[in-house]
Amino acid sequence: MVLATALVYSLAVPNEFFTVGNPLLALIGLAGYFAALAAAPSNREARRLGALFGAVSTILSNYWLMFFGDFSVWTLGGASLGYAIYHTLLGPILRRTWENPPAWRAVAIAVVWTGYEYFKSIGFLAYPWGLIAYPAAIVPVLIQHVDITGVWALSFVFATVNAVFAERMLPILASPQRLAEIGSAGMGHVEIPSEFSPGSRWWPIRQLGWIAAIVVLMLGYGAVRLATPIPEIARVRLVLVQQNVNAWQRGREEDALRAAQRLSLDGVAASPEPVDLVVWSETSLRRPFPEYIGFYATTPPEQPLTRFLEEIGVPLLTGAPFLADADSWEIYNAAILIGTDGQLKQHYGKQHLVPFAESIPFWNVPGVRAFFQEVIGLYGVWSVGPEYRLFEITPYGSRADESGPVPSEPIQIGAPICFEDAFAYLVRGFVLSGADLLINLTDNSWSNTNSAQFQHFVAAQFRPVEVRRTLVRSTNSGLTAVLDAHGRVIAELPMFEQGTLTVDVPVYREEHLTFYTRFGDYLPQLFLLIWLAMVGYQARRDGYLPVLRRDEKKPR
Q: Which CATH architecture fits 232-351+386-509?
């Protein structure tokens, strides 16, 4: 049952067969796992089932991690081991949660699961891939409410439906002893058959009724939001370059640079209107700029980067290493803005690094560093960017006088790097810092799979809706696209192909920040508090916490 559930769950999230996921499968993708945990005769068995689900579901849905450079065994193996450990801890928690009263048992399961998805999306080990809500992105009207709740209300709804289906499976999977155990814990005096069908055979429909009411509210709010125009303060003409050259491969640095320059010049030359900004992907420059100006003055030989910057006459936003401190070799995985004069104008250092790939705890300890360098083959790490930084450009508007286009007001750009656009808290931080437009720089060319690209894209698709800002994704190999403030695709490029996307990007700014932007992840944090309250309830019910009655006197 657990293995079958892991397969269904992997087909529910974006994969090679359902590129953006399957919301119908997401409604049942966890039911078998929930039911198997409820039927487990002991916490030890729940831990075993949890480890099995965590490892198998991770391998099936994230198999593309095996293409991560020379350390695929560590990336896929590490992620699978990590999720096996997560679910080893989660399994017994979910098992005990089934011992709550039937009236709110499914809700309790959904509260725990949503809290888990939030917990795994924060901190050093955060990995916000594969949330059960992500398949809903295929239905734009259903995700508009995330500007209030974030993605977490959808996770709660999907998890609740899965729990309701799991309840119907329990009489088949659980032994009479386990059913009696759950019944006595949850209801006390109720017979087993009625405990699993409280009231009548219509109990599942009654349970799903209030969930349907929530979904109707979500859809109604979404319809109103989609029909309500968002104020547009400017338009920015961008040339997005997708060079589709994996610069990680030895000897491809010049090829990648050459392709990016050629595509940029073609895109700018083909544009009938002035271009405001050319955008390259993450680490398109493999060496710090301008510290390696000598290299860039001669590479590529036929048209060095410095000469290209003079010729193009448009600011360039690109990924590049940024050397913050030469003495300590503090270097960021950064986005940098190079002006029309060829000078570095601003930089932003990536704040959320990939654990054990871009950042390794205790790297400065000789033994740790030697292990990763000699055994794993990882020879360096990035430093953590210290703060949010914005890039300012002044786009040309639609107005013109006798001398030509008239510049608009300056706009502020936030540039989350790589998988930072999958983290709601980071994108929210950019907007709170004043960002009018979001441009993500990503390089997933190493993945060699459509599913890796789409999993990243679908996770990012919720960000523009949460903050009501346009999100531009400029990638090496895909998925290069522009998402409006409703999360809809305005323009895109085919994946794993070279090309340029020249697009007029709308810049939105409402009078007030969204509720989610102002208050953040309050909902899953509330769910964690509710879970703690459930733990207290169970502890008191089982006699681990004393209950002081009114007729009892306090000891002196």
A: 4-Layer Sandwich (3.60)
